[in-house]
Amino acid sequence: MQRIRNLILTIIAVVLFAFFLDKAPELLNGYWQRILNLIAINAILALSLNLIYGITGMFSLGHAGFMAIGAYVSALLVLSPAQKNAMWILEDIYPWLLNVNAPFIASIIIAGIVAAFFGLIVALPVLRLGGDYLGIATLGFAEIIRILITNTARLTNGSLGLKGIPAYTTLFMSWGCLGVVLLCMVCMLRSNFGGVLRAVRDDEVAAKMMGINTFKVKVIAFTLGCFGGGLGGALMGNLITTIDPRMFMITQTYNILMIIVVGGLGSVTGSIIGSVLVTTMLEWLRFVENPITIGSINIPGIPGMRMVIFSLLLIIVIIFRREGIMGMREFSWDIFFPKAKPKPKHEKSNHESVLEVEDIVLRFGGLSAIDGLNFNIRHGQIVGLIGPNGAGKTSAFNVISGFYKPTSGTIKFLGKSIGGLSPDEVCKAGMSRTFQNIRLFGHETVLQNVMTGARIRQKYSWWMSLMPFVFTDVLREDSAVKAQAMNLLEQLGLSEFAEEKASSLPYGAQRRLEIARALATRPKLLLLDEPAAGMNPQESDELMKFIRRLRDEFDLTILLIEHDMKVVMNVCDYIQVLDQGIHIAHGTPEEIKANPRVIEAYLGHENTDKETDQIIERHYAKKEGQK
Amino acid sequence: MSEAMLKIKNLNVNYGAIHAVRDVSIEINRGEIVTLIGANGAGKSSVIRAIMGLVKSRSDEMTFISPRDNKPVSIQGKPAEAHVKLGISLSPEGRRILPQLTVEENLNLGAYIRDDVNGIADDMEYVYSLFPRLKERRRQKGSTLSGGEQQMLAVGRALMSRPDLLMLDEPSLGLAPILVEEVFEIIRTINAQGRTILLVEQNAFAALKAAHRAYVLEVGTIGLSGTGSELLNDNKVRAAYLGG
Amino acid sequence: MNLNIFVQHFINALSLGSLYGLVAVGYTMVYGILRLINFAHGDIFMLGAYFVYFATIVYKLPWAVGVVIAIIGTTICGLLVDRIAYKPLREAPRISALISAIGVSFFIENFAVVVFTGMPRPVVQPPILMQPIVLPGDVRLIPLGILVPIVAFVLVGCLLWLLYRTKPGLAMRAISFDIETTRMMGVSVNRIIALAFGLGSALAAVAGILWALRYPRVEPFMGMTPGIKAFIAAVFGGIGSVPGAMIGGLILGFVEIMSVAFFPTLSGYKDAFAFCLLILILLFRPTGLLGERLEDKI
Questions:
Q1: Closest-approach residue (CA) in chain B for C191
Q2: A-C interface: how many C-beta pairs under 8 angstroms?
Q3: Record: contact A603-B204, CB cut-off 8 A
Q4: B154, closest residue in chain C (CA to CA)
Q5: C74 pLDDT band (50/70/90 cuts)?
Q6: Between chain C's N and C termini, which has fewer beta carbons within 10 Å?
Q7: How crowded is residue C172: how many other Cβ atoms within 10 Å of its Cβ?
């Protein structure tokens, strides 16, 4: 019902807007039509950069370069041979290029594809970098592209640029393109693949543990974003009718970056609002640079003033409202209507499982974090891994789950060696884990967190999510996963929170959600890293029951690290003890409690009374002596 | 002997939704070694970091009475750098040595608030006399030191501001038993030379032996308190660690 | 290529490189402490050039006075930028400060357009700096070409002395590794950050002055390209490292001048070499030549 209602409302809005565009040439003068065009183009550019940065979290400063590629490709395709002949003055145009021609629509699509192709070439090496370095490297690429355009005069007419490009970018064209981009992007972001993109941004480590090949996901998002950049550039060229390399300097990227930051990083709605605001503001502010006549007073225009005011506004926005206008929120018709709640179903799984850890050694430089760890876990056991601070417990987890490669030793999971597999591969093999300092996809809903965990079980490819109405597998699989996720949330008592933001949950619920997300991958072995951390005694009592219930209901084998000894002693069938990387003991809880080596590891060296007394005596003797 | 130096009433620390420290009250008298022990995750470091002003906290009272002028000063909500000037210093958990600075530079940083060149030189010699190994390595970078040497450097650095109250967070962490003994011996020496010490430790036996008084933290609240020797023979301490 | 021309190129590369280095030092200090790419730094550099232009050419003050005024004025501007646009955002996500930096950069550039107009203005070079010195072998040296690297090296030497031999320098180095621990030692972190901005701006002012003398003119957007190049130099050298920034600047200077000197046909690609080198360095040694590797924590 709700979906049909929203669909109808959307169609009505689109039709009304199309009607407006149809009448626009009569209603608006050329100046305002141009602004309207620019808004649409800037929105396409902003959406594409937002996909790269706001949604997938890759800091890219290279958008101007991809715009340049798009603009040139499209212009070279739509210019007539006669125009080209006349324009290339300094050097001759390549003969093959002279007669290449394509209709406008084809040219902007090819422009997007060529830009995406360059994006892919850039992405493969560069996306291995993170954070600011990625930004600098992409900035470098954009500059290289610009320099290449300036210097390959036979191809691009060099610094003279291209003039007389047919003004094919009409209002219907620009807004039509925006409509298609918007539709594809919203569909993709609403599918489970969109959830995966945001998951990579929120926590790449946790995303890997959900079985996601994060590098591939990032390359896809970057390439798609570059497609948008090329498309926007092509439309821009055909609107302004003149392009040259100086148009695509870093300032151009800054402009787009400003739009998405003002609108709200990660919000599609924000990008649209941002384009409207920033574009109009920039054009409107031109009045301060033109002479104004009020009555008999003439105020001469002040060049530069426009950008001074604009940059001041920008600084003020970023200092006082740094999350932008929309933050990460999106527009939805639902804000005009009261809410309804969905209902879940039931399911279960069954399997056999063994983990065998043999002679694991892990060294960082000269320091050994783990020095010979051996143990087996039988199907259905709950095993505790304990030890004082710095014992190497979390390192052991990181080795088992594939984040660290052991220096030596073997790990067999379900009879197969998993040493050297990456975390996403380990996850696919049937192991899942939680983290000591809860790593949820904090900006996502509780439901989406669990659905991200289920992405590895879905069969549809990412590109299908751009057109879910054609590839209905997307809708079917997403709704199946959604039902399973709701079911899981129900079982773990989280269903009331399904639509809440994960980071807004109370602490205990966040812990349970992390477990729910891990369960969504359908693991056979679950690793829990300090599940009781930060809980009060009552909460940890509940946790103990919960862990046993998990094992029974989901037919799991569980390995857990825990400091709360009450939890460990009560819930574990068997315990492994590490101290400073050395595997000092193993046994049942009763054996462990009585083990002198364990007591020493935890409470300190007990048998040094004599030594200590001697030290104290020596010490006081010294003091006496001083006096 | 029972002149109070630090009084804390009902200290609370929250990290987001986690209530890590609940209504902890502690008093430290001049000249004492007071230890705060408890299992991992009990909130020991949070208490000491709250006292130092490194994490946000709430309390009914957090007063420091400097022996320099006997004036009580509220330190609640003050930044860490103000604490150092009042005469409190901290050797943090995990040592937090600045890896690219030399041993001597690390020590000089500890004396940042002081301007008396001669006094600093004296104290540097004093630290070297406590830890002769640091003197041998004074020109080496912090990152090249062994774990034990780094711990010594952290303690020495905290001494360089000439504090009245020295706070040590897990000084025995990750050290071999023989080194643990050495560190505790030095703590006693420093105390004997007139400094008040607040010691946070997981190594209960060693800490209890060294301390005059002790508080046992259990999941964010004080479970037990008493003199070091009382608690040393109390089975409840073992229960607090190993879950009874 | 005869000796004379080679020496010319060499001196040229040395002085261009040391100018990049001087600006790069400012980037590297701020980035080392705040992890902020101070996009406005190139514009601070431009302000230095304008200050000296107005002091000496418009108001006819002696050069020495003009230089002092320029350094002081630029330093104050640098401090104001930090206080107004960056300090309120210390606890904010890094992108906020970065956008603020972009805003400041736009602001300064366009403010300069408003106040000074967008027209480039010629700088009159003091004749004493331009009188060629003839060495044996008919090698001619322009004093300015020698002065630039000397000034740059002396200043960076002073900075290194300050960083490695004084207490504020010690605090500055400490902050770039661990702000919290440094605070624990009683250091007022905000003061040290301001110091870093001040020093960086003063060095940028000197670089701006020398740049204005070298390409004898000033214009509002003159800081943009050298700014980006200097930032690249800082990344080359390993961001956060002062000697690294200087070395990075020199490498960049030599690559630009020598590539054009030996392959004149490729002169249009001069800037591309710098960026290609940048990307190669990032790929094979992401932390630059002298940079420290930072570990990700799970």
A1: B81
A2: 125
A3: yes
A4: C181
A5: very high
A6: N
A7: 23
- Taking an 8 Å cut-off on Cβ atoms, the answer to whether A599 and B242 are in contact is yes
Chain B residues near any Cβ of chain A (below 8 Å)? 15-20, 39-41, 170, 172-174, 177, 180-181, 184-185, 188-189, 192, 202-207, 209, 219-220, 237-238, 241-244
Single-letter residue type at A469: F
Over residues A334-352, the pLDDT tens digits come to 777 765 444 333 333 334 5
| Domain regions of chain B by residue span | 4-95+164-242
Contact assignment for C89 to A318 by CB distance below 8 Å? yes
**Helices A63-78 & A131-151 angle (0-180, nearest 10):** 30
Chain C residue numbers with beta carbons less than 8 Å from the beta carbon of A306 are 110
C214-253 residues labelled b (16+ CB within 10 A) or e (exposed): beeebbbbbbbebbbbbbbbbbbbbbbbbbbbbbbbbbbb
Measured between beta carbons, which residues in chain C are less than 8 angstroms from residue A133?
A: 235, 282, 286
Rounded to a whole number, what is the distance in Å from the CA of C177 to chain B's nearest CA?
Answer: 7
> Chain A window 98-117: which residues touch B at a Cβ cutoff of 8 Å?
none
Can you give the three-state secondary structure of chain B, one letter per residue? CCCEEEEEEEEEEEECCEEEEEEEEEEEECCCEEEEECCCCCCHHHHHHHHHCCCCCECCEEEEECCCCCCEEECCCCCHHHHHHHCEEEECCCCCCCCCCEHHHHHHHHCCCCCCHHHHHHHHHHHHHHCHHHHHCCCCEHHHCCHHHHHHHHHHHHHCCCCCEEEEECCCCCCCHHHHHHHHHHHHHHHHCCCEEEEEECCHHHHHHHCCEEEEEECCEEEEEEEHHHHHCCHHHHHHHHCC
Domain boundaries, chain C: 25-223
By three-state DSSP, how is residue A491 classified? Answer: helix
Distance CA A139, CA A133 (A): 10
- Give residue A512's region: left, alpha or beta (phi > 0; psi -120 to 50): alpha
Q: Is the CB of residue C173 less than 8 Å from the CB of residue B101? A: yes
Concatenated DSSP letters of A351-378: ----EEEEEEEEEETTEEEEEEEEEEE-
List the single residue in A250, A302, A403 with the smallest CB-CB distance to C298. Answer: A403
Q: Tell me the residue length of chain A.
A: 627
For A568, which residue in chain B has the nearest alpha carbon?
B243
Distance CA B198, CA A120 (A): 58
Best C167, C181, C190, C193 member to test B by mutation, with max B CBs in 10 Å, is: C181
User: CA-based angle A129:A134:A137, to the nearest 5?
Assistant: 110
Does the pLDDT value for residue B1 go beyond 60? no
User: B3: which 2 tokens?
Assistant: 């002149």
| Closest residue on chain B to C178 (Cα) | B98
What is the reported pTM?
0.82
* Integer Rg of chain B from CA: 17
Which of C275, C277, C280 would you mutate first to test chain A, the one with the most A CBs within 10 A?
C275
Cβ-defined contact of C298 to A147 (cutoff 8 Å): no
Count residue pairs from A and B with Cβ separation < 8 A.
94
Fold for B4-95+164-242, please state it.
Rossmann fold (3.40.50)
- Predicted-assembly ipTM surpassing the 0.90 threshold: no
B85 shares contact with chain C (CB less than 8 Å): yes
The total of other beta-carbon atoms located within 10 Å of residue A463's CB is 13
Contact at 8 Å (CB) between A45 and A228? yes
CA angle A333, A334, A340 (to 5 degrees): 150
Nearest to A104 by CA among A234, A220, A229, A210: A234
Domains of chain A: 2-334 (1.10.3470), 355-603 (3.40.50.300)
| Span B36-92, pLDDT tens digits | 988 766 788 899 999 999 999 999 999 999 888 888 999 998 999 999 999 999 999
Q: In terms of C-beta density within 10 A (0-12 exposed, 13-18 middle, 19 or more buried), how is residue A35 classed?
A: middle
